[in-house]
Every structure is written in C-alpha cells, then in structure tokens.
Amino acid sequence: MASKLPTLFLAHGSPVNALADNEFTRALKRLGDELPRPKAVLIVSAHWRSRTTKVLTIGEPKTIYDFSGFPKELSEIVYPAKGAASVALRVATLLTPFGAEDDESWGLDHGVWSVLRHMYPAADVPVVPLSINQRLHLDGHLAVASALRPLREEGVLIIGSGNITHNLGDIDWDENAAAQKWATSFDARMAKALVARDEDFLLKRQIGDYASLWSRALPTAEHYIPLVYAYGASDPSDQVIFPYEGMQHGTLSMRCVQFGVK
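The structure corresponding to this sequence follows.
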C-alpha cells in the first residue's frame, strides 16, 4: 500500500447509475482497480444529514433505499460491506473537538452503495459513513475535513459522494440529454478553482461573478459539501486529477475529483 492514500470526490447522480454500465461507472471501476487497496473507506454522503457530526459505528450496516419512483431492481440491491469499529473509533477521536457522536441507526444510503458497488463490487472493503452536520457553514466542514488528514497515512480512503451541480428542478430526465451551457460553465469554473485551490471561490459561494450561477447549480448545499470534505482532507501539495468528466440529464455534473497519489 502507498504511504498515503488519495482523497476522492465521487459524483453519484441518479440511483440508476448503480445498475448502469456507462462511461461514468466504468471510471469508478477503474478507480477501484488502480488505487491502492484501502483497509477501510470513510465516506461522506450528501444523503446523511444530521444536527451534529455523527460516525456510524455498527459492524453490519444496513442498505438504505432513500429514493422512490425508480426501477424495482434498485430496491433489491444489497451492499453487504462490513463496518470497521477501530476506524470509527479513530474518526470519533480525531473529531472530538467538533463534538462527534457515535451512531447506530443509519446505514449505507444510495450515495454510498451506488458508487462503491462499482469500485468494490465484492463489498469486501469495510465502510464507515460520516454524516453532514447541517449546523456547520462551509468553513466549518473544511475544519472537520482537515482533522481527518492523518487517516490517509493509516490506510483509510476518504471519499465524498455528491455532485458539483445538483438542481432537480432544472434537469432533463433523459440521461443523455444535451448538456446546458450554464451547467458546463459552472462545472468548468469549479474544476479551475479546485486545481488552483481557490478557497475564495470554493467556500464563499455568494460572492463574485458566479454568485447567481452558484444558486442555480446548487440551490441547496448538501451535494456540494462532500466535495469540501475530499478537498479539506487533501494536502496543498496534492495533484488534482479528474478521473471522470461529463454530464448526465443535461445539468447534472458527474465530475469526479482525486486529490493526490497518481
């Protein structure tokens, strides 16, 4: 294993991607094949939000179907990855200054299993979910993420799962619909900011020429916050790589980001 694992931001998009064989899901498979194998995954999903910072500690997390109106096959998927008590304890210890709490009620939501079943289809890498504390601002999430950096040298792969653009009121239900210019413009500007580590852009969404576009691309922040975790747990010297770039449903960015270890 490499001395330090990368951090990842993975788009997840529609739950249907869990069943799909497309360019995006094949990129996830390549990541699983090519990256050093972790002893565990710590994952922040857009779909686990709470009023405090919570760490899932159970040994056999359930598969959660937090969606409706999709093919029945999706609700029949079971992703039987184990938890990792020692990693959960380590995370809770690192996040003690932030009031982190143990949790046994959540499980693996579709922001987790829809991507991991492509990366690790055998479900043989333990998974520890970390919730999004809804009371924190973006700089607060950045501070939490920064505290997780030591895990990278302890065999833990830190993943954020969300989307760089996520406006369900402004999508085309055709997965292959032509990309809209505003969405590709925002996605490209975000990529530029990530490479430059431009925290004025990344953390201050209401300023500058892109303020109105921020509001259109991300009317709510929960799908963006996982990117802040992947970014915050990275080092300033880490190379920024885009394992996948593309759009689905006209406005949904599926860009994935890797920080470090190429």
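The chain has a mean pLDDT of 94.
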